[in-house]
């Protein structure tokens, strides 16, 4: 039925899970819908925090409170997006791995992760000095982290949409 896998990506794609998702009339669209909803939640909650860092919105709430209130939603939605994204990947692994938009999306998500880690480990150390109700001066490093985060996640969305329009073009 399926040819002998020639590489790791085909091995993943020809797995029982990969075949089921690819051949099911409901599995792929359902997973894709959940993935999009989860990703929108991730980006929305991150945007709230980033806009606060940029001093554009949410100034009546301490950054600590805002971050705490949104973090659980961000993490939960990211886990759901990662699981559904992984399952979508399994169904077309060899196609995704030659699609430059998929590779760029993964690269930009890695950059967003590095930006987040740097912010939490380095920049956020000075949070006590600027974590006041709209009156503290947000440091340049925090503003840069917020701006980069917004740009990276917008790029993730753009590349993600491009993947859907270019499946089957790159071989």
Automatic annotation (TrEMBL):
Residues 32-165 form the DUF6644 domain. Keywords: Membrane, Transmembrane, Transmembrane helix. Coiled coil: none annotated. The keyword Secreted does not apply. It comes from the Bacteria. The chain crosses the membrane at residues 34-59, 71-90, 102-123, 144-170. This is DUF6644 domain-containing protein.
């Amino acid at each position: 039925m399926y040819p002998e896998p020639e590489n790791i990506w085909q091995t993943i794609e020809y797995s029982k899970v990969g075949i089921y998702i690819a051949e099911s009339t409901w599995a792929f669209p359902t997973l894709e819908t959940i993935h999009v909803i989860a990703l929108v939640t991730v980006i929305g909650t991150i945007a709230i925090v980033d806009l606060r860092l940029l001093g554009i919105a949410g100034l009546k709430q301490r950054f600590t409170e805002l971050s705490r209130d949104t973090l659980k939603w961000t993490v939960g939605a990211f886990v759901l997006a990662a699981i559904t994204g992984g399952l979508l990947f399994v169904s077309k692994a060899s196609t995704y791995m030659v699609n430059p938009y998929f590779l760029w999306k993964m690269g930009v998500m890695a950059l967003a992760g590095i930006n987040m880690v740097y912010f939490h480990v380095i920049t956020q150390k000075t949070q006590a000095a600027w974590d006041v109700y709209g009156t503290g001066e947000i440091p340049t490093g925090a503003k840069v982290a917020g701006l980069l985060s917004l740009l990276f996640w917008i790029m993730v969305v753009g590349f993600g949409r491009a993947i859907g329009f270019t499946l089957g073009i790159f071989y």
